[in-house]
Amino acid sequence: MEQKKKDRRVLYTKMFLRESLLTLMKEKSIAKITPTELCRHAGLNRNTFYTHYNSPEALLENIENEFYEQVRQSIEKSPDDGDITSSLAGICRIIFDNRDLCSVLFTEYGNKHFLRRIIDLAHDRTMAEWDALGVKKERDQMELLYCFSVNGSISVIQKWIQDGMRCTPQEISHFIEKASAHGLSGFIS
């Protein structure tokens, strides 16, 4: 029973630190957030913070890794024959379900490369689908096409988040898929 009580306290402590960090990141970059400021905002002492993390950056990395795992597991659970459209729709749905987190992670104060890391989870599936569609280009050209498609997708998702996610995850993933398919059509043999 005592261990369960301790685990609950640890979970609450981490939750307060997480919420405080995300609140502070709405106003400034992670590089400008000190452990003292974070602890003051969370109502915790610095020793408690250092028991779990060695820096605000380590806490942010932990938050990002948890979110990344959630997306990765969602993609892995989809059928092997699932297409990139369903993978993209799943990613957009998870972003929507975690909009408070994503409204910080994918904006100017968040990690600029984190959204790319999320989108790149679908790389192999995308390449296989393009091959099945008849995109018969050199591997280097396919990688360039993927880079073009991903960077466009990232920009659309960031704009969607900045605008308050007024359309549904299905609508935004359909838009990205349609725009990508149009660009892809020039490469199908």
Evaluate the radius of gyration. Answer: 19 Å
Shape: elongated
The run of helices and strands is: HHHHHHHHHH
- Give the end-to-end Cα distance, rounded to a whole number of Å: 65 Å
Output the number of helix runs. Answer: 10
What is the subunit arrangement here? single chain
Strand content: under 5%
Average of the residue pLDDT scores: 85
The portion of residues assigned to helices is over 70%
What structural class results from the helix and strand content? mainly alpha
Largest sheet properties: none
Tell how many strands the DSSP assignment holds: 0
Q: What is this entry, summarized?
A:
74% of the residues lie in helices and 0% in strands. It is an all-alpha fold and 189 residues long.
How does this model look, in words?
By secondary structure, this protein is mainly α. The chain has a domain at 80-189. Helix content is 74%, strand content 0%. The longest helix is centred in the first third of the chain and has 24 residues, at 2-25. The model has no long low-confidence stretch (mean pLDDT 85).
Which secondary structure elements does this structure contain, and how are they paired or packed?
Layout: H1 2-25, H2 35-42, H3 46-52, H4 56-77, H5 84-97, H6 99-105, H7 114-119, H8 123-133, H9 139-162, H10 169-185
Helix pairs in contact: 1-2, 4-5, 5-6, 5-10, 9-10
